[in-house]
Amino acid sequence: MAKKRVLSGIRATGRLHLGNYLGAVSGMLVLQENPEYETFYMVADLHTLTTPYDPQTLKDDIREVVLDYLAAGLDPEKSTIFVQSQVPEHLELAYLFSTAVSIARMQHLPTYKDKVKQYPQGNTMALLYYPVLMAADILVYRADSVPVGIDQEPHLEVAREIARKMNLEYGTNFPEPKRFATKGEYIPALTGEGKMSKSVEGSFINLTDGLETIKKRLAAAPTDSGKGETVPEKGGVANLLSLVELFEGKEKREEYKKAYTGAGISYSELKEGLAKAIDEELKPIQERRKKFEENSALVDKILQEGAKKARKVARENLEETKKAMGLI
Ligand code: ADP
Ligand code: TRP
Fold it and tell me: Are residues 42 and 119 in the same domain?
């Protein structure tokens, strides 16, 4: 039987943080190790152009994500690792897909509205087109499983709608892709508000952070008196407890919860323990990163071969769609 396919990607907007790792990359790793799946993982450089970016540093920014991928354990022997713009078939399919969605549907997406709010000067066609290109990224491989964080769900909904519409109108055979969720599908910000995000200073811990930096970042996370009748369910303390559960286990979290309603929590101790646990998880990733940083010819080769493999699959599916649509 043919293997099921997986596709995922991350924009080149900076170094990866714990949210990206736990929400997206950890799912990519799980599926990479499952022999039932064929996995395609890219850097979404074309999607990077939808918000303000620096053309002078884009190549380096792309390389940073590739290094973070390889450091985290994405393995070119098991996964096809590539840069989105090196497989132009994505763009061609995206144009064909744009015939199957309305402008109004795109304008109503919460992800679109948020970005316009964030960058009022950046309300471009490219931004509106974002979910169409993302649907093409996935469906050009007929992937049906997509490891991403929960914030990407509205985009997957669009991809499913496009697949259905294309199948209905043109008799194509696209699967309806589903999100592959992980335990860390929503990592809260250290600031106590919203999700951990590259674009919010003070909200994140990067995969490349050493113990001292992790401690500094955690030190700035807001807390309270450490004592009370009920444990907060939102805000800085709740977020720290979520991280405790992810890195030190459920039992440790329960211990702190008991302390909160009893003798009180010492946040300096909590933060110290959490910093160490995070550092332990990140150390092997950082060791692996060094090896790839020192061997840029190897990284070039991985990306070249990745693009070649991806293009072969993408071209076949694009051709079939063009045939179904009467173009060839
Ligand atoms: P950021 O918001 O930091 O710019 P991206 O939008 O580039 O992150 O997201 C890249 C991937 O990481 C996506 O799959 C996204 O769902 C996931 N992700 C980002 N932030 C988080 C988070 N705080 N918790 C879980 N997953 C996240
Ligand atoms: N939208 C994703 C993000 O912000 C990046 C992305 C682009 C992606 N194309 C994709 C994710 C295809 C999964 C599948 O992180």
Answer: yes
CA 93 / ligand 1 centre spacing (Å): 25
Write out the two tokens for 233.
């369910």
Q: From the CA of 29, how far away is ligand 2's center (Å)?
A: 16
In a domain, 203, yes or no: no
How much is the CA Rg of the chain, to the nearest whole Å?
Answer: 21
CB 247 within 8 A of CB 277: yes
Any atom of ligand 2 within 6 Å of the Cβ of 313: no
Tell me: the pLDDT tens digits for 39-97? 999 999 999 999 999 999 999 999 999 999 999 999 999 999 999 999 999 999 999 99
Let me know whether 45 and 159 are in one domain. yes
Residue 137 Cβ inside 6 Å of ligand 2? The answer reads: yes
Q: Which residues line ligand 1 (CB under 6 A)?
A: 10-11, 13, 19-20, 22-24, 148-149, 151-152, 184-187, 195-199
CB count in 10 Å sphere of residue 251: 10
Average pLDDT, the chain: 97
CATH number reported for the structural domain that contains residue 155 in this entry: 3.40.50.620
Q: In testing the pocket of ligand 1, which one of 151, 153, 178, 243 has its CB within 8 Å of the most ligand atoms? A: 151
Amino acid identity of 10?
A: I
- Is 193 within a domain? no
Q: Which atom of ligand 1 is nearest to the CA of 198?
A: 3
Per residue in 127-156, pLDDT (tens digit) is 999 999 999 999 999 999 999 999 999 999
7 lines ligand 2 (CB under 6 A): yes
> Looking at ligand 1, which residue's alpha carbon is closest to its atom 10?
10
Residue 2 pLDDT > 90: no
pLDDT band at residue 182 under the 50/70/90 scheme? very high
Say if residue 199's pLDDT is above 90.
no
Cα maximum dimension of the chain:
74
User: Considering only CA atoms, which of 103, 88, 106, 96 is closest in space to residue 169?
Assistant: 96
